[in-house]
Write a structure and sequence with these properties.
Blueprint lengths: L10 H15 L11 E2 L2 H11 L6 E5 L7 H5 L4 E6 L2 H10 L6 E5 L12 E5 L5 H9 L5 E7 H5 L12 H9 E9 L4 E2 L6 E8 L1 H6 L3 H10 L6 H11 L3 H8 L14 H15 L1 H8 L5
Helix pairs in contact: 5-7, 10-11, 12-13
The protein binds S-adenosylmethionine (SAM).
C-alpha cells in the first residue's frame, strides 16, 4: 500500500500546504460552499486520534477540500473515500492522490451521492449540509464517526427534553448513536476564519436499538415533530382525521399515554413507548396508511 506522507508536524507546515494548494489551483475559498480549511495541526491530529483508525478501517471523508485532512487519514486507513462537490477541488484531490492505491475521490454532492461502505467517517463538514448529512449517516451502518459541526448545530444533539432546541435531530441522534461532545474549535483554526465557533462530536452507532425498532419509527418522529409544540392529543387526532379515520380517532386518542403533553417534552423512551402503543392499537396496515411517509 502506498503511504503518501506523514501527517502535519506543525501548523505552519499545514498552513503553507493549504495556501500553496489554493495558489496552485488559482482558487479562493467560497463561504457559500462551506470552504473553510483547517490550518491548525493539533485539531487535525485530535480528530484523527479520536477516530482511532486502524489498517482495517475504510474511512469516509465528506468535503475533502485540498486534502489537508485526507493526507492524515490515508496514512492510517486501509482505504479512504473522499467526497467533494467542487470540481476544481475534486480534480486537485484526484491528482494529489493519484499515486495512492488506497484513495478514491468521489466527485459529487454528498447529500445526493450513494455512500460507499465504510467503517469510520472523519470529516470537517461543509456546514450548510450538516443536517441532511447527519440524517443520512444515521441511516448507514458504520462503527464510529468524528465530525466537525458549527457549535450551535452540535449543541442541538445534546438539547434537554422540553427545551427549544430539542428536536427530531436530538431524538434520532440519541436513539441511533452514543454521541459525545469532544471539543470546541476556535474560528482561528480555519482559513478563512468563520464567524462562529465549531465543535467536534463523535458518534458511535447503537446497533441494538436500531435493530430492535422498525425503520418506520423515523417516519413517526418526522411526522409528530413537525408539530412539536402541539399537545399530543391534538397532533394524533389531526393525523387520524386527515386520513379519514374518525372512528379510530375516538378509540385511539383517549387511550393514549402522555395525552396532554406537548410533543417536545417527551423523552426518547416515552416516544418509543408511544410508537409501540399506537402501532399495537391500530395494527400494521393502518399504521402504514397513517404514519408512513411513503404513503402520503
Ligand atoms: N477537508 C478540508 C478540511 O478539513 O479543512 C475541507 C473542509 S471544508 C469545511 C468543506 C469542503 O466540503 C469544501 O472543500 C467544500 O468544497 C466541500 N463541499 C461543500 N458542499 C459539499 C457537498 N454538498 N458535497 C461534498 N462536498 C462539499
Amino acid at each position: 500500500m502506498v503511504r503518501v506522507m506523514e501527517c502535519w508536524k506543525t501548523s505552519s507546515e499545514l498552513r503553507k500546504y493549504v495556501f500553496d494548494s489554493l495558489d496552485e489551483m488559482e482558487s479562493k475559498p467560497y463561504y457559500r460552499k462551506g470552504q473553510n480549511f483547517l490550518i491548525n495541526a493539533s485539531i487535525i491530529k485530535f480528530q484523527v486520534d479520536q477516530a482511532n483508525i486502524t489498517p482495517l478501517d475504510t474511512v469516509l471523508e465528506i468535503g475533502g477540500g485540498v486534502g489537508n485532512l485526507t493526507k492524515c487519514l490515508v496514512n492510517k486507513a486501509k482505504f479512504v473515500y473522499v467526497i467533494e462537490s467542487d470540481s476544481k477541488f475534486a480534480g486537485f484531490l484526484s491528482d494529489k492522490f493519484s499515486s495512492s492505491s488506497n484513495v478514491e475521490v468521489i466527485r459529487g454532492d454528498a447529500v445526493k451521492v450513494e455512500f460507499p461502505t465504510f467503517t469510520k467517517c472523519v470529516s470537517n463538514l461543509p456546514y450548510q449540509i450538516s443536517s441532511p448529512i447527519t440524517f443520512k449517516l444515521l441511516g448507514k451502518k458504520f462503527d464510529f464517526a468524528v465530525l466537525m459541526f458549527q457549535k450551535e448545530f452540535a449543541q442541538r444533539f445534546f438539547a434537554k427534553v422540553g427545551s427549544k432546541d430539542y428536536s427530531r435531530l436530538t431524538v434520532m441522534m440519541n436513539l441511533k448513536s452514543e454521541c459525545q461532545y469532544l471539543k470546541t474549535v476556535k474560528p482561528s483554526s480555519f482559513y478563512p476564519s468563520p464567524k462562529i465557533e465549531s465543535a467536534i462530536v463523535s458518534m458511535k452507532r447503537k446497533e441494538k436499538t436500531i435493530t430492535d425498532l422498525k425503520s418506520d419509527f423515523d417516519d413517526f418522529i418526522t411526522l409528530i415533530f413537525s408539530h412539536k409544540k402541539k399537545i399530543l392529543r391534538s397532533t394524533i387526532a389531526n393525523l387520524l382525521k386527515r386520513k379519514g379515520h374518525i372512528e379510530l380517532r375516538n378509540k385511539v386518542v383517549n387511550s393514549l399515554p402522555y395525552l396532554e403533553r406537548r410533543i417536545f417534552t417527551l423523552t426518547l423512551e416515552e416516544l418509543v413507548d408511544l410508537y409501540k402503543f399506537i402501532r399495537a392499537k391500530i395494527g400494521e396496515d393502518l399504521w402504514s396508511d397513517i404514519f408512513s411517509l411513503n404513503t402520503r
